[in-house]
Fold this sequence. Notes:
Blueprint (H helix, E strand, L loop, with lengths): L23 H35 L11 E6 L4 H17 L5 E6 L3 H10 L5 E5 L5 E6 L4 H13 L2
Helix pairs in contact: 2-4
Amino acid sequence: MSKKKKRHPRKKVAAGAVAVEPTRRDVMRLARNGLIGTVAVGGVGWWAVSGVQAVAAEQDLSRVGQGKPAIVQIHDPQCALCTELQRQARKALKEIDDEDLLYLVASTRTDDGAAFANALGLSHVTLVLMNADGQVESVLEGVRQSDELKGHFQALSSKT
Length: 160
């Protein structure tokens, strides 16, 4: 008994229909859509990588006491009040636009962040304002509005 090759079923074509070859325009449209998709996926990838790098830089607590005053937020990422304080702090920093101030996050969900908070005896929803030498200047507990924070941040910056 000999083996027969399997034939792939052919698509049924409606009676009277004629197979049409793709035009140059169809090919160009497919190429354009492929390029747009590639750029979109690449853009999302770049955005995600830069976001991860920014978070890593914010959580690098070794930068405290390295010649620039620092604002360190003791932060629990699952706490709504912490998120609101972070939003207000970033808004205040954006308004004063001072490149000499560091904004750092001591996440209580990381070993370094928890150790930082424990060493100072502080809990989340707290901003620690530190001078250029890493000494604590003041501690702000609880959610504060950006206008109030702006004044504290400017005072910290002027001490350098």
